[in-house]
Amino acid sequence: METVAGARGEFRFPSVKIVLPRQLLGLILPALLVFVWEVSARASILPANWLPAPSVVIVTLVELLRGGELLRHIGVTLARVTTGFLIGAVAATLVGMITGSSAIVRTLLDPTLQAMRSIPSMAWVPLFLLWLGIQESSKITLIAVGAFFPVYLNLLSGILTVDRRLVEVGQVFRLGKVQLARRVILPAALPSYLVGLRSGLGLAWMFVVAAEIMGASRGLGFLMIDGQMTGRASVIIASIVLFAIFGKLTDLLLDILGRKMLGRRGIDL
């Protein structure tokens, strides 16, 4: 709407305030990158055999989806990530609680775990292949190892940084060790624990690529390697995009669940 101000006929346009949901703001940069990528590919600035246009990648995904091949690969990868993450997270939770509650156990165990944390993911591959073969057990074990350390470290850090005054209050009320852990220590360490779970899930998605490279015949990692072997860059990029999408979706789901847990306890993350 225009307004006339003064005798000189000066036009002033009221400022327009565009309000977007916070979730949509994060889509602006990816959308811009995809647009630039599409334009550059169509203008032959980017070699088609190296970096095909997003529209070509979408066509490839649709073709794989119609053939039923894509859903099988996605289902297998999701199953591996879920199983490996749950095993690693449960093991890390148990070990973190034990080392966090006992100084002696922490002194004996934590240095070894810290050293193992520095081992690259690919260094485990030949050992797991030797021990477990190329079956699902070796792949899931590798993913579990990747998920273990972030969960363990964050839980341990959360337990060790609990305000001692909270513990003293629990002791004043004569809470036993189990009650003290359940009602005081673990709730106070919950934010750090949830951060560890999200980090562990992210590493589970990273480790599944290494897991599916070692002799897999199904999964998004196998699909990516198959695209490399057959010279189909669109298949490789489609696999990478699917890894990003499903990794973000699972992280978002875990974030929502974590916020609900914290909300019930009146904790703001």
Can you give a write-up of this model?
- With 269 residues, this protein is mostly helical.
- The protein has a single domain (59-264), classed as MetI-like fold (Orthogonal Bundle), CATH 1.10.3720.10.
- The protein contains eleven helices and two strands, in the order ββααααααααααα.
- Strands 1-2 form a two-stranded antiparallel sheet.
- The model is unreliable at 1-11 (pLDDT under 50).
How many structurally independent domains?
1
Number of helices: 11
- The CATH C-level name is Mainly Alpha
Rg over CA atoms:
25 Å
For the report, how would you describe the main beta sheet? 2 strands, antiparallel
Please state the average pLDDT score. Answer: 83
Portion of residues within helices:
over 70%
Number of strands: 2
CATH superfamily: MetI-like
Provide the succession of SSEs.
EEHHHHHHHHHHH
Dominant shape: globular
C-alpha end-to-end distance: 42 Å
Keywords, please?
269 residues, mainly alpha, 2 strands, globular, disordered N terminus
SSE topology:
Elements: E1 3-5, E2 10-12, H1 22-25, H2 28-42, H3 54-66, H4 69-101, H5 103-117, H6 121-132, H7 136-160, H8 164-172, H9 177-213, H10 220-229, H11 233-264
Antiparallel strand pairs: 1-2
Helix pairs in contact: 3-11, 4-5, 4-7, 4-9, 4-10, 6-7, 7-9, 8-9, 9-10, 9-11, 10-11
